[in-house]
Design a protein that fits this description.
The chain is mainly alpha-helical. Helix content is 57%, strand content 12%. It has eight helices and three strands, in the order H-H-H-H-H-H-E-E-E-H-H. Helix 4 packs across helix 5 and helix 4 runs parallel beside helix 6. The N and C termini lie far apart (49 Å).
Length: 165
Amino acid sequence: MEKLPLEICMRIFCFLDYHNLAVAQQVCRKWKLMASEDALWSNLFKERWGGDHAAFYSPIGSKLWKDVYEVEDRCDRVGVGLKIIREGSDYYLVQLGEKQRYLGSRKNGEQVSGNSSHTLSSERGFTEEGSLAEERSCRGILDKILFFIGDLEVASADAKRSRVI
């Protein structure tokens, strides 16, 4: 595809579904740029949810159709309520399809508290070593609870989908 004109490459990308388009973005920089084209994601959105839905959810400001598509897809998969989801080994708090906060990762056991760069110790003013150790212990328990809830959500997702009403 290196020698093909850009127009032909884009026509080929138009035939891809969203899974394959996302995979194509990981091949090389050129494919990432082509597969991120706003018109491709706009067409995918319209195909999946219709033109009326697309008119209502059209991106505002610096948002791209790809971002809008990801949010709507996440809403379809996990719902619009407040949920903890797992993507790979990372956990996120999601509401209305938007990732609200990064909760942590199973890989490195590291947790980040949202956009804030402050730790709990700096917010509460802890300076003693004993308080710091106690705080780390509590944080470890909270991490385990969050990871358990996330694992439970993932494990029960198939059961929820196949439940007959």
